[in-house]
Amino acid sequence: MGRAKIKRGNTNVDMTAMCDVAFLLLTFFILTAQFKQSEAVEISLPSSVSNRHAPEKDAFIVSIDKQNRVFLNMSNDIKGDVFDELVKERNMNVTPDDRKLFMQTDFIGVPLNQLMSFIRIPSNQLKNTQLAGIPYDSTNNELQAWITAAATAASGDRLNFLIKADNSTKYPAFGKVIDAFKKNDIYKYNLVTNAEDVPKGSVLYEENLKAQHASGK
Length: 217
Fold this sequence. Notes:
Layout: H1 16-32, E1 47-48, E2 59-64, E3 70-74, H2 76-90, H3 96-103, H4 115-118, H5 142-154, E4 160-165, H6 171-182, E5 190-191, E6 194-195, H7 203-215
Parallel strand pairs: 1-6, 2-4, 4-5
Antiparallel strand pairs: 2-3
């Protein structure tokens, strides 16, 4: 008996539709991605074994460098509101163009009397500019004013206060930053560190193992 012939189908696959979908997805991710802002200064963070990550949304970040200078970063979703509140509280004379320039800054690192000049410095020239930092001593505590403006602008919404201090930062500088938060009745903030793995055999390592077993992981 003759063997039945199986009709061979066309093995060519049209990938046009797949390529279109791939390019659409790529375009979507590029347009919706939020790029990390430039750091105010280079900071060597201390290490910790925490497995929690610092929040990036609604973030108000106080950075202290090795020279004990203070800088501010804030996420774009709160930056405009903080600026508006600061202008109102300090009775500053600004224009809509000043606000636009402020929104384009990656960080703040000067006293308020230099702020309008600072926001006009091109970002590619900032690293070559000597910045004084934000005053935070008892006679001129402008850091406290910035924190007040941020807390008022949040007006009940969740605002994440973060502190990033260099490993070489002296404690008096760190203590004054904490005092600026206390004077605003803010006692909850996150300390940003370099996360390391929990040492094997430690109490925390054993507790994590027990928690994983209990959760069935």
